[in-house]
# Entry
Amino acid sequence: MKYVNIIGRKIFMLYWAIMKPLNLGVRVIVIYKNEVLLVKHTYVKGYYFPGGGVSKSELFETAAKRELFEEVGITAHDLSLFGVYQSVKEKKYTTNAVFIVTLPKRPTLVIQKSELRDAQFFSTKNLPKDISPGTRRRIAEYLEGRAPLASEW
# Structure
């Protein structure tokens, strides 16, 4: 299975290099007390916020709620837009709308095993070493209270 993911990723990277598609995505910063929810996908290294792609004709907020429920079983009602970020890494052009939700109680996570290797809450003062750089920057922005409306991922 690991090799299928590697080969599939290389095929997608070739496609992105040739076609230069525009990708729309969402990420959700889930906060419980002084902890943040991070997930580790099966197809990429490191920890990220829950999230994924936006389907055709789907609103960003709807996609964020859907991805959060699909990946970890959390139903969120009160999402707030944190910022919009662009990335041109890996020859693909991605725009991510990042939302934030603060939970009143710690949820029981229902992890989608086909897509995630891990999902857990981490103290904002003790983040994992293999967190993605963009995710680390968004957490720093949150902690410093300085979320830009739009920026580079």
Observations:
- The chain is about 30% helix and 35% strand.
